[in-house]
Each structure stands twice: as C-alpha cells, then as structure tokens.
C-alpha cells in the first residue's frame, strides 16, 4: 500500500475535489475539520490501518456519541477514497435504532414559547422572528438566506440545499410578521435576516444569540440551538399528519430513516405508552 502523509497540499487537493463534487460549504468545512483533527492525532506519522483503528478506539474511549464517531469516520473514509487508499477505511459502529430520545436533549413547545418571550422582552425582534421562521417552516439555519422579501410576498421560498431544490411554504401569520418587519427595517428586497452591513446573519451569531436567551427563558442551554427548532417543527407536524414520507419531503431528507430521528418520542412518552398497554395483571 502507498504510504500516506496528510500534508497541507493533499488537504487542499481534497477540498477542491469536494467542491467539484458539489458538496455544500458546510459539508466541506466539516470533512476538512475532521481530517485535520485526525492529522493532529497522527503527528506526522505515515497513515496505516492500525493507526486509523487506534483513533477510532480513542474516540470511543473519550465517550463520543456513536453518531458523532460515525460522522467522523464518514469524513475520513471520504478522504481515503480520494487518496485511493480504500484499505485504510474503518468500519462504522453499528447501533440499534433509538426508540426514544432523552428529555434533556429535546426542546419542548413550552420552552420554545419562553425563548420567544425572552427575545421579545429584550427587544430583539430579529431573533424572535428567526426562531419563528425556523420553527414555523422546518428549514435549516443555513437556509434562512432563502427567506427573501419576494419569497415572503408569494408565501413560498425556493430552497437549494445539498444539490436539491424544494419549496417551503410560509404560513399567513408568519408572512404578515415578516413583511411588517421588512417594512420597519426598510428592507425592500433580498434576504430579510441581515446584519447592519447588509450581509445574511451567520449561524454563529444566531447560535450565540439563542444561548444568551437561556437564562432569562429558564431553558437548559444544552437544548437551545437552531437545529432543535427544526426537530420541534418535525414532531409537531408528525403529531398532526402522521405522514413521515410527506415530512421527509418538507425537511428535504433523501431518506425516511433520517426523518425518523426527528420524530422519536421522549422517554417519558414512551414509558407512558407502555404503561397504557396494561399487560401486567
């Protein structure tokens, strides 16, 4: 097998290849970050299969979540494929599908309302509307850029993400709020959620601003991040429609298996359903 040393040059070549494969900017950033973290662990050693397995075992011993480890492995395997070193690829960790989620990880509707109230009381109307837009449409935080004045006027945003195009409907109540906000801020065209310099608000700023609401809203900060608003949308929608295929289309998922992760019940709900079975006499 050809020796592999992870140099800056090969990382740049790999990055260019990911762009040619039309990977999203977020995916490219994550893959490169994971490869660089592994390079740091390797400390200029030639990459051999034993070293890769050792790194995988370290992630396990450091108590990384299985999903996180498998995500890192996916990044490394993509890199090894690019380097034509298929023999270096480690196996992902098999895990039984999760049947319920821990309460401390999922944002409730009541907590969401408290976050909205906290943003409003702080006078942060933009953040309040960002929360409502993500939770009211199910979009990713990176897709906020497609919530434009024109999109809001026609109550439908056309979103391009991960090589796919989909329509996102904007309900009337949200449409009215967003149009009123755009008028107040003198935003006549383009993205609605912008900074003072006119650039789209970054996910980093949104993340930070959400965390700053937690104390006043009395919500566990571990629950508060943009993607959990998307999860809340999914759970509420599925609770009404019970149509996982339609939900997958709305969220822009290629696989229903991904959508299942979004709608699993909490441990308390799962336990209550078992109690309601009344099978113990």
Put simply, the count of helices is 13
CATH topology of the largest domain: hpI Integrase, Chain A
Q: How far apart, in Å, are the first and last alpha carbons?
A: 64 Å
Q: What general outline do the C-alpha atoms trace?
A: globular
Low-confidence stretches: none
Q: Estimate the strand proportion.
A: 5-15%
The H-level CATH homologous superfamily of the largest domain, spelled out, is Intergrase catalytic core
Element layout with pairings:
Elements: H1 8-20, H2 25-42, H3 49-61, H4 66-82, E1 100-101, H5 109-121, H6 125-137, H7 149-153, E2 156-161, E3 164-169, H8 172-184, H9 203-217, H10 226-241, H11 244-251, H12 256-263, E4 265-266, H13 267-276
Parallel strand pairs: 1-4
Antiparallel strand pairs: 2-3
Helix pairs in contact: 1-2, 2-4, 5-6, 5-9, 6-8, 6-10, 11-12
């Amino acid at each position: 097998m050809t020796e592999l040393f992870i140099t800056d040059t090969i990382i740049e070549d790999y990055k260019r290849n990911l762009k040619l494969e039309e990977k999203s900017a977020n995916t490219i950033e994550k893959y490169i970050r994971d490869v660089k973290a592994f390079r740091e662990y390797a400390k200029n050693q030639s990459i051999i299969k034993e070293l890769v397995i050792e790194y995988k075992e370290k992630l396990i011993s450091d108590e990384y979540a299985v999903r996180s480890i498998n995500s890192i492995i996916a990044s490394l395997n993509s890199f090894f494929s690019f380097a034509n070193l298929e023999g270096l690829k480690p196996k992902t960790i098999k895990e039984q599908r999760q049947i319920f989620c821990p309460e401390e990880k999922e944002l409730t509707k009541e907590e969401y309302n408290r976050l909205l109230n906290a943003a409003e009381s702080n006078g942060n109307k933009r953040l309040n509307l960002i929360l409502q837009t993500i939770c009211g449409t199910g979009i990713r935080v990176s897709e906020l850029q497609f919530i434009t004045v024109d999109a809001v006027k026609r109550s439908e945003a056309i979103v391009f993400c991960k090589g796919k195009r989909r329509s996102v409907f904007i309900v009337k109540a949200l449409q009215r709020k967003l149009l009123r906000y755009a008028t107040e801020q003198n935003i006549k065209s383009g993205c609605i959620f912008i900074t003072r310099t006119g650039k789209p608000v970054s996910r980093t700023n949104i993340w930070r601003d959400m965390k700053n609401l937690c104390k006043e809203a009395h919500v566990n900060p571990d629950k508060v991040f943009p993607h959990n608003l998307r999860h809340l949308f999914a759970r509420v929608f599925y609770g009404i429609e019970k149509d996982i295929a339609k939900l997958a289309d709305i969220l822009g998922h290629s696989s229903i298996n991904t959508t299942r992760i979004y709608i699993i019940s909490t441990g308390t709900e799962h336990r209550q359903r078992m109690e309601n079975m009344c099978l113990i006499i």
